[in-house]
Each structure stands twice: as C-alpha cells, then as structure tokens.
Amino acid sequence: NAGVTQTPKFRILKIGQSMTLQCTQDMNHNYMYWYRQDPGMGLKLIYYSVGAGITDKGEVPNGYNVSRSTTEDFPLRLELAAPSQTSVYFCASSYSTGRQHGYTFGSGTRLTVV
Amino acid sequence: TQLLEQSPQFLSIQEGENLTVYCNSSSVFSSLQWYRQEPGEGPVLLVTVVTGGEVKKLKRLTFQFGDARKDSSLHITAAQPGDTGLYLCAGANYGGSQGNLIFGKGTKLSVKP
Predict the structure, then answer these.
(1) Is A57 on the interface with B (CB under 8 A)?
(2) Which residues of chain B does A104 touch, with a Cβ-Cβ cutoff of 8 Å?
C-alpha cells in the first residue's frame, strides 16, 4: 500500500517555465488537497477536490491550476513559474472530510524557481 | 479567518526532559489533530481528539483537547532524540462541505542526546 505518491521529489525551474507536479493515491480517498509549505509559515491550502471532476480554490490558488479526472490522480500545474512559487509542495488525501481520520500526506516536492 | 497559534515556535531540550507545546485559537473546532513532520517528509498524523476535555495517550505523548474545544496541548515525557521534528496542530471546522483542516505554523522540537 503506497499511500500518497508525489513526483518529482526535487525540481529547479527557470522563471516563466511551466511544470506539473504529480500526485497519486491508492487508498480510494475522495478528498485530495494541495498545500505549499514555506519556512515558518505553516501549510497553506492551494486547491482541493472532493471527488473526481470537482475542484475548488483554497487560500493561495493564484498561479496554479488543478484537474481531477480520476479518483486516484490530482496533478498541480504551475504556469509561468515565479520566484514566489519556490516552496515545498505537499499533496494529501483523506477519507471523507478528514475530521476524524486525518490526512495522509505525500513526501513532498521541493521546487526552486530561479 | 480562523487561526491556530502554536507555542513555542522552537524548543531545544536535552534527552530525558519533559515538554509541553500548545495550540490555541479563539474559534471552536469540531476536532483537532496533531501531526509530526520529519525533515524531507510529509506530516504524519499522531492523534485526533474530538470531545472537549478529551485526553489521549500515545506511549510517552499525551494529547489534551480543551473543554471549550478552542485549544489543545501535547505533552512529551522523557523526550528522546527520535522525538525531534516539527509538530503541527490542525483544526477541523463544524459544518461546511469542505472539511478542510486549518494548520498551525508548528513547533520545531530538537532533542539532544
């Protein structure tokens, strides 16, 4: 049981480039989330999805896009990368809302934009 | 906007010492969770507390949810180097369709041998 798998682990982008961060879960969780984590700032929600075909913005969605075509996959797209997007990105999933069972996180993608 | 304030932000102690970290809010939460995050990894769920006044123990870790469901504490007895990490609390809202958790900024704990 792999849980939540994120790829790549590390990536360096040049300003203006684009990329897709991949996230896959094998727990049949309906809810999936993308967070970014900056030093001393905690976890900020970028986008979330409550099921295939349904996505919604979180606290910091600007500069990002998501799609959810299957239950398993929830890729995060960065268009026109900017230095402010340098961060560690975490994908998470949960059974239902996660209130009682919590979130399962991937191991993260460390992105540097230069 | 609901906020969770964690204190202290940093804590460096010697092996064998006891410690308590706090998670406070002016808002009421339906449940509160604690996660531990090690360098280079994602947060891992330690516990969920649901009932006001609830106390849960996980080996040397004791978690308490405040009576009013606005705050929580994590107490570690006889800390060990393996307890080193970032401890995050996260609160869940009542109602709503999102069910999104609100995370505190974390307490970075270093336990020295």
Answers:
(1) no
(2) 45
